[in-house]
Amino acid sequence: MIKRIKHSLEHLIDKSSRNKTSEAEENLLNDFALNEYQNSNWDETSMGNPNEVSQNIYDNIQIRIGKKKSFNPYLKYMAAASILFLVGLGFLYTPNVTAEKQVSFKTSDTPKSIELSDGSKIYLAANSSFQYPEKFMGDERKVSLLKGNAFFEVAKDKTHPFIISSGEIKTKVVGTSFHIQLSKSKCEVIVVTGKVNVSAKGQSVDLVPNEEALFTAEKLTKQLADKSFLVNWYNTDITLNQTTLKQVITILQYKYGVLFQYNDERVLATPLTVFIKKDATLESILQQINYITNLKFKVYGEIVRVD
Fold this sequence. Notes:
Elements: H1 2-17, H2 23-39, H3 44-47, H4 50-65, H5 75-88, H6 95-98, E1 102-106, E2 112-115, E3 121-124, E4 129-133, E5 141-153, E6 162-166, E7 169-173, E8 177-182, E9 186-193, E10 196-200, E11 203-207, E12 211-216, E13 219-224, E14 238-244, H7 245-256, E15 259-262, E16 271-276, H8 282-293, E17 297-300, E18 303-306
Parallel strand pairs: 5-6, 15-18
Antiparallel strand pairs: 1-4, 2-3, 3-5, 4-5, 5-8, 6-7, 7-10, 8-9, 9-12, 10-11, 12-13, 14-16, 17-18
């Protein structure tokens, strides 16, 4: 019933704007608009002054159709009344959703964590930026990873999906844990526990533990994840036993938000065992690697060079 009312209203308004309505249809719209406008309950705090809103709508419609064309004097009331009518049916604006106060959370040279109002925990890598509402108030829990990398431990809530925007992709979950790694050229989502849906540019994949979604060059693909990413190494001490320098560098790049540069790729095959304490500084880990390998790692802002 509601859908039918909504469709009929939209259809008549569209016909009227194109001067295609009959006299009976135009009278019906006029009566509806005037009645809804006069009997509406307008919340000035959240929706503004009703006269100003209806006048703005009237002016914008005039601009769109051209001021030389004839224009029904009740159409500004019709537009404002229609907004209120559809709000009452639950189709438009929900004040609580738009009232969410957004908070920015940034890191510099060390990872940090934060707990959101729903109990979800976010572990943000160094040199990363994250935005979230001070308190979730809508049907969905929406946040944004603006820069860098993060590990998410999302509190379970089946009635309020948790949605993360990161570059071109959206990650939707109910309650699970996973990594998101965002750079200029790509975005990766790696699932540790639970189920995750990742979508971008009309493409969509569902992930379970040990799986990864990769979005690069406008293409979204699913593949097996690197086993090193199947723990929350932002908040856990880890030991990389008998691994390669390439594997260690991969984790350090994501955890500390840096980029490694090297002249000889053969150094990446160097074998080593490294202990990474959860709150260790990048410099302390590089000193450990320097001692083991006799290489020389130096930090230049967000760049680490290997000599």
